[in-house]
Amino acid sequence: MNQLAKSFSRFSLLLALLCLIAFTASAQSNRKLIRSGNKLFAKENYRAAVPFYEQVLANDPDNADALYYAGISYMTFDKEKAADYLYRAQKIKPNVDRDLEYWLGRADHINYRFDSAIEHFKEAQKNLRRRDEERREELAMLIQHANNAKREVANPKDIFVKNLGGVVNSAYSEHSPVISSDDNYLLYTSRSSEATGGTPARDGEYYEDIFESTRTGEDEWSPTKRVSGALNSAGHDASIQLFDNDTKLLLYRADNNGDIMVAERQADGTWGEPKSIGTNINTKHYESDAFITKDGQTLYFSTSAYSEYGDLDIYVSKRNSDGSWAAPKSIGSTINTPFDDDSPYFADNGTLYFASTGHNTMGGYDIFASKYDSVARRWAKPVNMGAPVNTPDDDTYYRLSPDGSYAYLSSYRIGGYGEKDIYTINYIRNVRVQGQVFSKVDSMAIPGVELIFNGQSADKRAISYRDVTRPDSGFYQVDVLSGRNFQVQVSKDGKQITTEELEVPMSLNDTTTIVRNFYIDYVDTTATRGGIMAVKPIYFDTDESNLRPESVSELDRVVAYMKANPLVNISIEGHCDSRASDEYNMALGNRRSDAAFDYLVSKGISPKRMVTVSYGERRPAVPNTSAENMQLNRRTEFKVLERADQSNK
């Protein structure tokens, strides 16, 4: 027994020793993998660094160091995973790194957890050394960015932001959308694996190349391809702007630290060799983006050449008589900040749009807008375009479509295909919904009916619009946001009568009107008490007073009503739209009221029970702003006249 016990003891000791050796080897291997990842991490080659950290986590899921560095790395292309990894690292090892609170704040910020981000930034401030003044200023700025984002996200603009789709966007960065003047040809920049040479750049991403696609449907694009010819080089190349009737292209090339180039379309449709835009624009410093105005005489561009701290500023240059560009001037401190101001775009409406990491950004680059006051000769204070145009991360390369109804944008936001994607922003307009409410029983127009249009904004918030039908016509009118469904709640005297669905199509102009009448189970028993006869108006063609067939049907209802109510007297009121002079319309209104009067007399109604009046164009039912509205104003209405024995009651 003793010998057996000794043998077992030696076996246990040997097993423990082997486990210790294996554990030590595994720990050494993990440390080596982390060091390899950190070398790439230090070069900002995050995609290449992540596999080393993930290999460590496959061996040791609770390795806080690997979780920490992987979490920071994932912030460049997987925001949600970044936050998950960083919080796991904190839970396992709260002191894994003195900058942990800083990175938790950054991760929460880009994931829209602004209050939490602010708390982490404040904790990071407590951990600063006295000499960390630069980081102290950065944290104060990040807290302000989080507050800006919180405010903007809480008050979003009611617009739709839509990803351009997986045909164009990939797991890599897509940006710099350039659209042709007919809105059917798209150039953009991608860092996908299909870029020139397929060899990653120093940061682990593939080199930027210019790609193209053509529109095949309203929201559909043909399979994209790298632009053939001379546009793409072995380094970074990026699209900027089509101009001169789409025959020329501004582009960025990484030559000389980054220059603005011009290429011309050849007779065979390919692009020629890019050439420098000129020595007054390109310097030995970084020129990143540019825009030529529609008249071809002004160039806005971004450069680091004149900045004290190497940040990007926007400069402007005028074209010389020989076609070259003059020495540039700063656009001014109203636009330029001590931070990066980039991607200028001057729209046809006189607005300058640009991207900036300064001003009141929500975080990273935001899109701002400013107009030039030609009288005061200065730019207006830039306005943040707000959410959902801007996000807590980078939003750049804002360009309006040719008709200005929507915009293209490059952005890194949750729900995309990977890094930056190209999005469209639809600027939806209001639609006017108008009509009348009638009784299903007797087809009479009903005054005093409340209509509430309930729907949702683009960010799913409840919205509602209300109107009450007019006492003289049962007419209502509301302006609602287009491109959504509404539930219309119809009530009378505080009691809900019905709820109906109304689909309002998307509208991109300011003059769309939809006519929708409602027919409800209700009889207005007070129709003759307040000086109103609840019947439909009759309508006329332009400049006409002849009765339409449908008008005769309505007049027959008036006849039946008056014969059933022999004590009722009525006023017949003629109205017009605003197309002719006031004098002419007064006469036309008289002819329209007389036409109804004559018909009622022919049906046996005593002329003594009726009076006629013309208001011409002076009492429109609706504004004369569209053909539909003008039709509603070409009408004759009927009102009950108050009897003498009722006047003092």
TrEMBL record:
<dbReference type="InterPro" id="IPR036737">
    <property type="entry name" value="OmpA-like_sf"/>
</dbReference>
<dbReference type="InterPro" id="IPR006664">
    <property type="entry name" value="OMP_bac"/>
</dbReference>
<keyword id="KW-0998">Cell outer membrane</keyword>
<feature type="domain" description="OmpA-like">
    <location>
        <begin position="527"/>
        <end position="644"/>
    </location>
</feature>
<dbReference type="InterPro" id="IPR006665">
    <property type="entry name" value="OmpA-like"/>
</dbReference>
<keyword id="KW-0802">TPR repeat</keyword>
<feature type="signal peptide">
    <location>
        <begin position="1"/>
        <end position="27"/>
    </location>
</feature>
<dbReference type="Pfam" id="PF00691">
    <property type="entry name" value="OmpA"/>
</dbReference>
<keyword id="KW-0472">Membrane</keyword>
<dbReference type="InterPro" id="IPR011659">
    <property type="entry name" value="WD40"/>
</dbReference>
<dbReference type="InterPro" id="IPR019734">
    <property type="entry name" value="TPR_rpt"/>
</dbReference>
<dbReference type="InterPro" id="IPR050330">
    <property type="entry name" value="Bact_OuterMem_StrucFunc"/>
</dbReference>
<feature type="repeat" description="TPR">
    <location>
        <begin position="30"/>
        <end position="63"/>
    </location>
</feature>
<dbReference type="Pfam" id="PF07676">
    <property type="entry name" value="PD40"/>
</dbReference>
<keyword id="KW-0732">Signal</keyword>
<protein>
    <submittedName>
        <fullName>OmpA family protein</fullName>
    </submittedName>
</protein>
<dbReference type="InterPro" id="IPR011990">
    <property type="entry name" value="TPR-like_helical_dom_sf"/>
</dbReference>
